[in-house]
Amino acid sequence: MAFRAEEAAERGFVRAKNYLISRDFSPSERAAGEQALADIIEKCGPVVDTYPSWHPLVSKHDDRQPVTTPSRECGYEGLDHTIYFAHGFLTCPYHSAEKVLESTARLPSHPRCSITAEELDVPFYNSGVKPVLVRCEWDELLEGGYLVPKKWAVPLMMEKELPGWRWASVAETWETMRPYILGQPHGNRSSLFVSQDTALAMKKIFVAMTDTGMYGPYIQRQPRLY
User: Fold this and answer.
1) % pLDDT > 70, the chain
2) At 222, is the pLDDT very low, low, confident or very high (cuts 50, 70, 90)?
3) Which of 65, 79, 131, 181 gives the lowest tally of CB atoms within 10 Å of its CB?
4) pLDDT at 2 (0 to 100)
């Protein structure tokens, strides 16, 4: 089935709305939350499931154990009840937002973007939480509003994948690595992070790297028995 970005984005919006806008809120609180969610999507892009491992929001991790969602493994503290957007995430911890704000401020600088965090005075998830919006603000406008251009996506991918030649013993296929490189949701040749042209360039370069044998031989997986 072909990947339909608009349908994937709409499914994500419905999921985020159902998760963040509590039925226990008053009508005015629900309206305020829905408007704030729409504003966040306008700034940060569509709701996503996971990030590419090279995305600045998650890239500060151990390259031997890549992660694709914000967590302690990539520098954040205090996250709870979190929804991800293409270039930001909303987290709703109870009691205090300080851990999120402070840990985000400690993240290393990035050559193509800045990562910021701000506490929001908006009713999200539950009346007892302190919502924080963490944003990845790129230095230049993205393609189509939210797609990372090829000139950035390709080198960022290479920076994450190239060091693996030092310790890898087997090579992964593009099909196995596609969620890590394109993020989720994704199709065969695009995602909510990169266009088809960019994804094809990334695939071509990744396959060329693995075909050199730099990571070792391809994994021979056993056929699935039914």
Assistant:
1) 96
2) low
3) 65
4) 60
pLDDT the model gives residue 220: 64
Identity of the amino acid at 92: C
Enumerate residues 6+ apart whose C-beta is below 8 A from 156: 54, 55, 56, 59, 112, 148
- SS3 state at 132: strand
pTM of the predicted model as reported, rounded to 2 decimal places? 0.93
Range list of β-strands (E), 55-154: 82-85, 88-91, 113-119, 132-138
Per-residue pLDDT at 133 exceeds 50? yes
112-119: long-range contacts, CB 8 A cutoff, minimum separation 24 = 112/56, 112/138, 112/139, 112/152, 112/156, 113/56, 113/137, 113/138, 113/139, 115/56, 115/57
Cα end-to-end distance, the chain, whole Å:
23
Query: What span, in angstroms and rounded, lies between the C-alpha atoms of 78 and 91?
Result: 9
Element (H, E) at 209: helix 196-211
